[in-house]
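[[Per-residue structure]]
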Amino acid sequence: MTLIDLTTLSGDDTPGRVERLCAKAKHPVRRDLLEGLGVADLNLTTGAVCVYHKMVPTAVDQLKGTRIPVAAVSTGFPAGMTPLAQRIEEIHASVEAGAAEIDIVISRDLALTGNWRAIYQEVKEFRKACGRAHLKAILATGHLATMRTVAKASMVCMMAGADFIKTSTGKEPVNATLPVGLVMARAIRNYREQTGHIVGFKPAGGISKARDVLPWLALMKEELGDRWLQPDLFRIGASSLLADIERQVEFHLTGRYSAYHRHPMG
């Protein structure tokens, strides 16, 4: 639960939906279930709340007084096809509105044509615009065609200053897959060995069941170590995942599966 970037990125998002999402982020599991597990005193929250720029002020207001950061998708998400100056201004606006994390998208056309210098310069500009906010670079791996391109894009984004590399926007035909995750995790490991610099990892898109998370946790532990099982270095971009985790907790306590509507925001 603590690794989830609880996300809503729909065209019909409203302030009310974001308010409910933030309430869920602050209290991700029903109190009676936490008491049943004996962990009610842990004050569990999700890792972050991820929204479009327009909803950043609402999320910031709702999460005031908590340690839950607001993440804003930026730079012409999900396609990244708007002019560079406009994408940079979008980052500035989200940071000024209170976003502590910025999820940017790389220009896939540059990656597909091997223009790595241009991607480096672009991400470097994004990193500068973020200031103290964390930068998560979305590779949109479902569009990158080959694992070699994924590996190169991972390294270039880390060299340009990305704090996280992220698999997908969640809008591609194919989103987070374990083979891509393995390539990106090994790029993170290689980059650390060469530079001593630690970069986080975020799979996103298509991870909707509790059982789907287990292979990703195993991948992090085996390839990068226990340090990457903490929310400052590993996040999962998801919306419906939390409700399924809550259902599994209730099944563990009662022996019965509950309907999704019993769990808010499910």
Observations:
- The mean pLDDT is 95.
- The beta strands are 4-7, 48-52, 70-73, 101-105, 134-138, 164-166, 200-202, 236-238.
- The first strand starts at residue 4 and ends at 7.
